[in-house]
Write a structure and sequence with these properties.
This protein has 332 residues and is of the alpha+beta class. Helix content is 34%, strand content 24%. Strands 1-5-6-3-2-4 form a six-stranded antiparallel sheet. The chain has a four-stranded antiparallel sheet with strand order 7-8-9-10, with no helix packed on it.
Length: 332
């Protein structure tokens, strides 16, 4: 449907035509010109905007989980957030990263193929420095990593894979990512053809005083089986199946067997700190509770019932009178 002009816009257009500011013939010639849209076949856009937004949401959650994980492991200030989500040829991704960097090659069954998590040397060496007891200073010497340093980095990044699994659980619950190898030269990694479209999620990372990028490279061929699940229409139309009778009974049985703490309050009192310090065996504390008043019973720390004290088989007991309602004043 064409845009409808308001009366003021119509008046302004007629005024411009009458004064000669606009030429009607030029407007007609512009309309006749064919509208050409440039399309680069080497950069085929195989993901829709809706799917890009879904990937962004997934990895925003991944960035939060990764922040918590690295904070606990490195015991320093960590802040990770999604900087951008782009689709580009694999060859362009390889050219965009440093010649010496940390490349984690990941498999994620049931998805076929490999994923890459590239960690900028500034960030990677700051992490390594923290693991070895340093202050987290960055030093670009990735090409000279020793076997011990390589094993430390591999163990650190392997520990972050459960965060990736949890972030993707909303789309694919059976995904089981695990690391195949840790590489430092991107030229040795030819996982897909150079023109294959990949999704690159760039995470901006701050580790202590060092900053850099963590890039996730997700080839289209790997994500192809679950691409339909990335659309918002799929998320909105997917309905949670109701629990079956057997599941309900199983859940109820487990809840019935769980333990809760039940406490009967005989009363309460207030004393000064000085009186507390001078208490001794045999002292009597007067409670602000009359003998004929009912007791409040707490279940799991919350007031639940009103009861009265008594005995049963020569043992102290309480008898539940009624559940506590909003009308009952049980505030101490």
């Amino acid at each position: 449907m064409a845009d409808v002009l308001s009366q003021s816009e119509i008046d302004a257009l007629l005024s411009a035509l009458s004064t000669g500011e606009m030429n009607a013939e030029e407007l007609k010639s512009e309309e006749k010109k064919s509208r050409i849209r440039v399309y680069d076949f080497k950069r085929a856009l195989r993901f829709s905007k809706d799917q890009i937004r879904s990937l962004t949401r997934i990895h925003e959650n991944y960035a939060r989980l990764l922040t918590s994980y690295f904070s606990a492991q490195l015991r320093t200030y960590v802040q990770i957030s999604v900087a951008s989500v782009d689709q580009l040829p694999y060859e362009e991704f390889i050219r965009s990263i440093p010649s010496a960097t940390v490349l984690n090659v990941i498999e994620a069954p049931p998805l076929e193929g490999h994923l890459i998590i590239e960690v900028n040397p500034n960030i990677a060496y700051a992490m390594l420095d923290r693991l070895l007891g340093g202050s987290g200073e960055s030093m670009n010497k990735i090409e000279n990593l020793t076997e011990i340093e390589t094993d430390l980095m591999k163990g650190l990044f392997e520990g972050g894979l459960p965060a990736l699994k949890e972030a993707w659980s909303s789309v694919e619950q059976d995904i089981e990512p695990y690391m195949i190898e840790l590489e430092t030269n991107p030229q040795f990694l030819q996982l897909v053809s150079p023109n294959e479209t990949v999704i690159v999620i760039s995470l901006s990372a701050m580790i202590g005083k060092s900053s850099g990028m963590i890039n996730l490279c997700l080839p289209h061929v790997v994500l192809e089986p679950i691409i339909p699940k990335l659309s918002m229409h799929y998320w909105m139309s997917e309905k949670k199946s109701d629990a079956t009778t057997e599941e309900y009974q199983s859940l109820r049985k487990k809840v019935e067997q769980s333990y809760v703490t039940v406490t009967a309050k005989l009363g309460h009192s207030q004393i000064t700190v000085d009186e507390l310090l001078h208490l001794s065996v045999g002292d009597v504390i007067k409670l602000e509770q009359y003998l004929d008043q009912p007791l409040v019973v707490d279940v799991g720390g919350a007031p639940k019932y009103i009861a009265q004290p008594g005995k049963r088989d020569k043992r102290l007991a309480i008898q539940i009178i009624k559940p506590i309602t909003e009308e009952d004043d049980v505030n101490e």
